[in-house]
Amino acid sequence: MNKLWVISDQPECAYELIGKAREFPGHITAYLVGDRAAGDTAVSLGAHLVKLMRLPENTVWEQYFAVLCEEAETEKPELVLVNATKRGKTLAALLAAKLDCPCISEGQKIALVDGKLQVQRIVYGGLASKAMTCPSLPVVITVAPHTFDKPEAMAGHSGEVMELAPPAAGSITLVKRKGKDPSSVNLAEARVVVGVGRGFTEESQLKLAEQLAQVLGAEIGCTRPISEDFKWLPEERYIGISGQQIKPDLYLCAGVSGQVQHVYGVRDAKVVVSINNNENAPIFKVSDYYLVADLNEAIPAIIAALQS
After folding, report:
1. How many whole angstroms separate alpha carbon 147 and alpha carbon 54?
2. Are residues 213 and 263 in the same domain?
3. N or C: which end of the chain has fewer CB within 10 A?
4. pTM for this model (two decimals)
5. In a 3-state reduction of DSSP, which class is residue 167?
6. Which residues pair with 152 in a beta bridge?
7. Co-location of 65 and 150 in the same domain
8. Do 233 and 302 reside in the same domain of the chain?
9. 270 belongs to a structural domain
10. Same domain, yes or no, for 222 and 144?
11. How many helices and strands in the chain, by DSSP H and E?
């Protein structure tokens, strides 16, 4: 494997992908959205060449695929790792179609086995994993944020940072770009997360979770219905296969049934503690500790014990 590409619209995720790319022999080119400092960081982590991508003023970021296709004709990358954000997934599909090569989504484990690239990915909504062997290259693989750890800097490593030419507008013209309301949610970096599920039958009950989170110094996460159906919490707090994937030291959840789509998002938590009044709740099967109890009684008792 001679040439590897990393493509990401988020610098932190680019760093994680560079760490994975370092496991393979070859020249690493990183395409990322960021400033010169982000480019220098990417070089220190192992990239040989960094090409900075700006958010285009007159079209969408995904249109960079046309620029990347032109570069691929001469560079001929063999492995392309793309950050699996909404924009990244779209770009990966467009790029793979143009290169006439496979596009594997949500890669979990990527390794060379007997000289061939093998990729493991989650299937059936997290119920199973599937190992795939790529008989030929190139191949494009999307990788969810925080699948891999950010690597340590490589002492003495050098590389080049440059700007990538912006894409033409093409058939898509950007009319307006509006940022989301600022949020202090940072589930990905939280060491402790309190999870809220459908067992919370009224929005007013969220005060219990908030009080518990305050005592623990935790962030609050939730299942999909709490965020998307009831709108009790912002979507940034939704944990699951299509939401946030977290790796806290402690995940303490209450009223969470334990559907596979949610469990997928907390599978890397070091310790899982759950509270549910249903002794047969599926969440108990993936919990290190669990309590069969009414959350309205259990949470105040836990808060009182922690405070004392």
Report:
1. 25
2. yes
3. C
4. 0.80
5. coil
6. none
7. yes
8. yes
9. yes
10. no
11. 8, 15
Selection from 304, 258, 263 nearest residue 284 by Cα: 258
The residue behind tokens 């305050």 is 214
Q: How confident is the model at residue 157 (pLDDT cuts 50, 70, 90)?
A: very high
β-strands 116-123, 128-134: how paired?
Answer: antiparallel
User: pLDDT tens across 246-293, in order?
Assistant: 989 999 999 999 998 899 899 889 999 999 999 999 999 999 999 999
If we measure between CA atoms, which residue out of 77, 123, 76, 124 comes closest to residue 104?
Answer: 123
CA-based nearest residue to 102, from 66, 142, 130: 142
* Domain closes at, from 147, 163, 179: 163
pLDDT at residue 181 above 80?
no
Q: Provide the 8-state DSSP code for 216.
A: H
For 279, counting Cβ atoms within 10 Å of its Cβ (0-12 exposed, 13-18 middle, 19+ buried), the class is exposed
Instruction: Read off the CATH number of the domain in which 142 is found.
Output: 3.40.50.620
Distances (CA, A) of 9 to 33, 35, 73, 161: 5, 12, 22, 16
- Report the amino acid identity of residue 141: I
Query: Residue 225's CB: how many other CB atoms inside 10 A?
Result: 14
